[in-house]
């Protein structure tokens, strides 16, 4: 087989590959530090992926593109949560290097079908054509092979953050396009009537229901944790992915702990 027949050798999607191999993956959120250096720092720490948040941040396309470039170069999977899910905007995120997109608060199957259209090239979806882009690692080659290679490395993720999403998950997964589910326990607990109580019994019951349904469909599930004991329990329940809070929360926590210790050493209140 010639190199042309084998197709392009693009950057692997570590998160997608490890999940498909039955392994667990770990990452962090990024939404405040507008520099690709934060991605490199996370990569040095050993993350498999970064969730780059545009829904609740001021990050621009230029910044996100730089972060995606750094992630791909470091062997880390960049997954972007967009602030709008129209097909052109999502396609742009993928063209500038995102290896996955994660749609927030998905409740209806039509949202999944729209996400598929935006994420994948024809005939599977409606993603627009561009040549030698960041998504193709700036390579050129036979169009069919190139598009297939990019599609194979693209992760379509959805967030389940409501009672409706939990109860309708079978329908959401029926088309077979979703490759990963992230449970937003903060919003889910709020929708269930227990705001911020991510370990409320009803929240955990919903978590277990999502894992059970997703497992039947062969789709891995993840969630955010802020403590190791919580992460241990989530893994025991069947989570395959754990993401820790965004970099500003981690930095604030460390700064606060350090300053409190220094103040105590100096006898300051």
Strand order of the largest sheet: 1-2-3-4-5-6-7-8
Strand content: 5-15%
Helix content percent band = 40-55%
CATH architecture annotation: Alpha-Beta Barrel
Please tell me about this protein's structure:
The protein is an alpha/beta fold. It has a single domain (9-264), classed as TIM Barrel. Helices cover 47% and strands 14% of the residues. An eight-stranded parallel β-barrel has the order 1-2-3-4-5-6-7-8, surrounded by eight helices. Strand 7 (221-224), helix 12 and strand 8 form a beta-alpha-beta unit. The longest helix is centred in the C-terminal third of the chain and has 19 residues, at 247-265. The termini are far apart.
Write a concise synopsis of the structure shown.
It is built from 13 helices and eight strands. With 269 residues, the protein is an alpha/beta fold.
Output the keywords.
eight-stranded parallel β-barrel; 8 strands; TIM Barrel; 269 residues; single chain; alpha/beta
Annotate the secondary structure layout:
Elements: H1 3-6, H2 14-20, E1 25-30, H3 37-45, E2 49-53, H4 61-74, E3 77-81, H5 87-95, E4 100-103, H6 109-119, H7 143-152, E5 155-160, H8 163-167, H9 169-173, E6 180-183, H10 185-191, H11 201-217, E7 221-224, H12 228-237, E8 241-244, H13 247-265
Parallel strand pairs: 1-2, 1-8, 2-3, 3-4, 4-5, 5-6, 6-7, 7-8
Helix pairs in contact: 3-4, 5-6
